[in-house]
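Protocol step 4 of 6: structure prediction from sequence.
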Amino acid sequence: MSSEADHIGPPEPPLGQHLDAHDAGGYGHGDAGHGDTGHGDFGHGDTGHGDTGHGSRDGHDHGDRHGDRGHVHAVNPDADRRYLLIGLSLIATFIVVEVAVALLSRSLALLADAGHMLADAGAIGGSVWALNLARRPTSAVWSFGLKRAEILAAAANGVTLLVVGLLVIAEAVPRLIRPQQAHGVPILIVALVGVVINLIATAALARANRTSLNVEGAFQHVLTDLYGFIGTAAAGVIIIVTGWRRADPIASLLVVVLVLRASWRLLRASGHILLEGTPETVDLDEVRQHLHELPEVIAVHDLHAWTLTSDLPALSAHVVVTEACLGDGSAAMLLDKLQHCLANHFDVEHSTFQIEGAAHAGHEPGTHH
């Protein structure tokens, strides 16, 4: 028996008896991340927000051992899109000015920042596009819609940051060896204006939903640019005061360190999701132990957890139960308890369980763990 709740991966084996959560007497869980899971009248609190107990009918109380891992509600996607567009318009306007001044002043630091800002503009534009894709409805071909477009956009942001960082290194090292003439005054003026522009853009993006990896990727682009302009301004001051021309490429290389750090964080996080890694907030050993505490549960195997997109973890498992549970028709009630346990203690509202008897594992294909 299983509840079907947004499952990724190969279909459940045809063997065994299945129970869809939405046909189990109203015990199915609700839509992703949208409030109450609709578990019925068994003394359950609102998922992820209320009492962690399972009610009096099951005699099984997990108590507060795990605390309240309340569900994080996403910011309105329309608001995210608006904040991203504000940042995009500010950066696109400034790029033209910065490129012109960089060419006139022969400043690598300004040119590097302009190239990074161009990447920022593309990254934010890609993030807006990914938001639009993620909002498309599901279909027979895309059963989850295109929600992972946001993760792909975050990965693309990580790659662009990496490419920009490598290009700046390739240009900065020769200039560090053979420094070129750089004019400190225009460098300082443009850098200070850039600090102001990026402060406004950073403040706008900071108001968006940064738990979304897509939005976080755009935010990291703008934030590293802000650091870059601060470094460029410092280089401009040094050139004006001392005439030391190596300050310009050194400032560029310092910016590269921040760029590569942001790139690594985005690529690591997006890669973890795309490769179906277990969510960092979910400890599978703890989940298994918690489910075992239900008196009807004998064993749990084929336990898997992954992330569909930001703030949308999912989990599936085969749950071996007592023959009494299968025989007296209480499997639907058990299904409710399992789903409530995951949602309330682990903030996983998308779960698929196959409930089976002990004899079923003997003729079920596949590896069990």
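Step 5 (inspection) to follow. The CA atoms of residues 78 and 131 lie 9 Å apart.
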